[in-house]
Amino acid sequence: LVIGAGASGLTVMKELKELGHTPICIEENMRIGGVYTKSYDRTMLTTSSLLTAYSDYSDGREDRPVFWSDEEYLDYLDGFATKFKLYENIHFRSS
After folding, report:
1. Using alpha carbons only, what angle is made at residue 66 by residues 61 and 68, rounded to the nearest 5 degrees?
2. What's the confidence (pLDDT) of residue 95?
3. Residue 11 in contact with residue 84, Cβ under 8 Å?
């Protein structure tokens, strides 16, 4: 059981799936992204995309590192979850 579909929860689910498990994730929100789903308007990450990005998932912009906004980071996490088929293991609005 994985608690939360933020950056760490998504990573745990991906790794469990690669080991042959079928993880179940409960997420209290309607969207993946953890604390960034409830952040202030115009929140910016304080680490660059070069350091924040997963080593096994590229958004194709490594040559142009940026400081992602909360929405850009949520879009990145969405791409990660989609690529590794994690949505099928997430139960939204669960606690």
Report:
1. 105
2. 73
3. no
Decide: 45 and 68 in contact? Cβ < 8 Å: yes
The β-bridge partners of 25 are 2, 90
Residue range 35-87, pLDDT digits in tens: 888 887 788 999 999 899 999 999 888 888 999 999 999 999 999 999 999 99
Residue type, 53: A
Angle ∠(28,19,10) on CA atoms, nearest 5: 25
Three state DSSP letters for 34-84: HHHHHCCCCCECCCCHHHHCCCCCCCCCCCCCCCCEHHHHHHHHHHHHHHC
Q: Please tell me the pTM assigned to this model.
A: 0.92
Q: Determine the pLDDT at residue 7.
A: 96
Helix axes 7-18, 70-83, angle to 10 degrees: 10
Res 64: pLDDT: 87
Q: What does the radius of gyration of the chain's CA atoms come to, in whole angstroms?
A: 13
